[in-house]
């Protein structure tokens, strides 16, 4: 759970936990233990590297909501917008231009929303 919170952020995980019902309780446990407690916690890759791999895989498979979630998580993993762009270039070559094109649009939207949020909060991080 600590890794899941560190990558996705407290608000995201809190919302997922609040929305958990008897129907998906086992699934939420599976995600936490399998993805976050096992794969994301392994020592051989950095969170930045895992983030780039995850975004590329999700984009290649067309999982748009998950792409957006993991692009948002890059603020916690250390993957830059340039890193994401490089990962998506691999998607274009190995999974197809349409998949990469869709993922670039998602990433641009996420980054634009983050800039808008920063401006609304009175910060200027440009």
From TrEMBL:
Keywords: Lyase. This is 4-carboxymuconolactone decarboxylase. GO terms for molecular function: 4-carboxymuconolactone decarboxylase activity; peroxiredoxin activity. It is an enzyme of class 4 (lyase). It comes from Xanthobacter dioxanivorans. Residues 27-108 form the Carboxymuconolactone decarboxylase-like domain. InterPro entries: 4CMD/NDH-1_regulator, AhpD-like, CMD-like, Decarb_PcaC. Its EC number is 4.1.1.44. NCBIfam families: decarb_PcaC. Pfam families: CMD. The gene is pcaC.
């Amino acid at each position: 759970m600590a890794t899941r919170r560190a990558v996705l952020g407290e608000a995201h995980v809190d919302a997922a936990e609040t929305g958990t019902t008897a129907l998906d309780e086992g699934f939420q446990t599976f995600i936490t233990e399998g993805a976050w407690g096992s794969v994301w916690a392994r020592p051989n890759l950095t969170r930045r590297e895992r983030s780039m791999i995850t975004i590329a895989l999700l984009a290649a498979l067309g999982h748009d909501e998950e792409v957006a979630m993991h692009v948002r998580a890059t603020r916690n993993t250390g993957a830059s917008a340039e890193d994401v762009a490089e990962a998506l270039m691999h998607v274009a070559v190995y999974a197809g231009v349409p998949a990469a094109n869709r993922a670039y649009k998602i990433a641009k939207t996420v980054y634009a929303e983050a800039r808008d949020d920063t401006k609304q909060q009175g910060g200027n991080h440009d």
